[in-house]
Amino acid sequence: MKKLSFVLLLLTATLFSAQAQKAHDVATTSDIFRVITYKYITLKNETKDATAVERFYTKVFKAYGYKHELPGDGYGGPCSIIDGFYKGGYINKKRANVFVPTRKNVASVIFISACNDGEDGDYGYPQVTLTVYSARLAKTIMGDIIDSGFEKFEYDNPDEVAGVELYYNGNQQVRCDYNEEEKAYNFYYSIAE
Questions:
Q1: Of these four, 37, 59, 131, 156, which has the most CB atoms within 10 Å of its CB?
Q2: How far is residue 152's CA from residue 167's CA, in Å, rounded to a whole number?
Q3: Are the C-beta atoms of 193 and 171 separated by less than 8 Å?
Q4: What is the pLDDT of residue 96?
Q5: From CA 105, how far away is CA 161, in angstroms rounded?
Q6: The pairing of beta strand 127-132 with beta strand 108-115
């Protein structure tokens, strides 16, 4: 009997441990800022810097189960990086490559960019946009942002930016809004320079 109780206790502990280690449904605030701050992309070493950043964020986001198949992957225009990942849906190639969420509780899109607007300056740190399609998932992200030490910025005239919230932690910032047309919650992560 003691042996059976011990086995059941061990099995319960193993199941609890496996559940506790289960991957998050979406990239965390800390991992997104690890991607952003991984390397500053200079104009002088653009290709080398951008390649290093791409390798790093691909590794990070694929660990969360994201697919690296969005159209426009790679470089373009005044940007050193324009890239994207998704999960919980598919890309509708017949409809202008629009993402279609099929599992809204985990559906999300990550878009990464590093641009210098065609000027001679450095590209700087990449910016990351995370879009989710579930209020529950958006609430989880907001909790993660707050737990990561971010504070809400109070606008002088909130009517001018209705529906937009800004959170900051030092020079790190996250802007949040809701897109009524797409029924999507957007989180824009960046470094204030």
A1: 131
A2: 4
A3: yes
A4: 74
A5: 28
A6: antiparallel
- In angstroms, the CA 129 to CA 111 distance is 5
Residue 91 tokens read as 């890309």
The continuous run of DSSP H or E covering 168 comes out as strand 165-169
Compute the residue count for the chain: 193
Mean pLDDT of residues grouped by 10 in the chain (193 residues)? 41 36 74 97 94 96 90 65 92 83 94 86 94 95 96 79 89 95 95 87
SS3 151: strand
Of 93, 98, 50, nearest to 74 by C-alpha is 50
The C-alpha angle 6, 10, 16, rounded to 5 degrees, equals 145
| Per-residue CA distances from 90 to 82, 93, 178 (Å) | 19, 9, 21
DSSP state of 171: T
Does residue 145 contact residue 174 with C-beta atoms inside 8 Å?
Answer: yes
| pTM score, whole prediction | 0.83
Can you read off the two tokens belonging to residue 131? Answer: 């879009």
Torsion sign over Cα 39, 45, 46, 51: negative
For 17, the enclosing helix (H) or strand (E) is helix 2-20
CB 39 within 8 A of CB 56: yes
